[in-house]
Amino acid sequence: MPNIDSAKKRMRQDKKRHARNKWRKQRVREQIKTFLEALRVKDVSAAETEYKKVCSILDKVSSTSTMHKNTAARKKSRLAARLNSLKAA
């Protein structure tokens, strides 16, 4: 445990940030799960709406320091490729 006041404050801030980042990443994972479930049952319309939700959440999360913009773009690209392969089939 830190003894200096500024170090104590830093620990409090880190704890809050960690919880916030964890919550944001969990939202992304849950939305990706629902998208992948729609892909699994081969429901194109549901998959498209879920993909839009995933993109929205990824854009919001990548605008913060939780996730880098390129990471979000890479995830969106890979999910879009899976959606397009379902549409082609």
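(ticket continues) Second input and output from the same batch:
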Amino acid sequence: MTPEFVIEFAKQAILLTIYLSAPMLILGLAAGLIISIFQAVTSIQEMTLSFVPKILAVFLGLLFFAPWMLEEVTAFTRRIIENIPFYIR
């Protein structure tokens, strides 16, 4: 294993993590932005009003994107396991 291989492997793992977490982060950001605008317009400053919708948005996004996420993680793991003989050279 060369240092270049380890760096490339870590890069792929980090990119996959960002790729998989992006939909939930974007949904949470969008829900937070919508609730913040609603709070600014109505002058309601309730903490749970911003917290609960974000949790729900992320949870629904996770339910919707879970099959795709599982496929991506499985493909990444499959590539790693299939290439083990090349890694030990």
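Agent notes: The longest helix spans residues 3-42. The helical segments are 3-42, 47-82, 84-87. Closing as not reproducible unless the customer responds.
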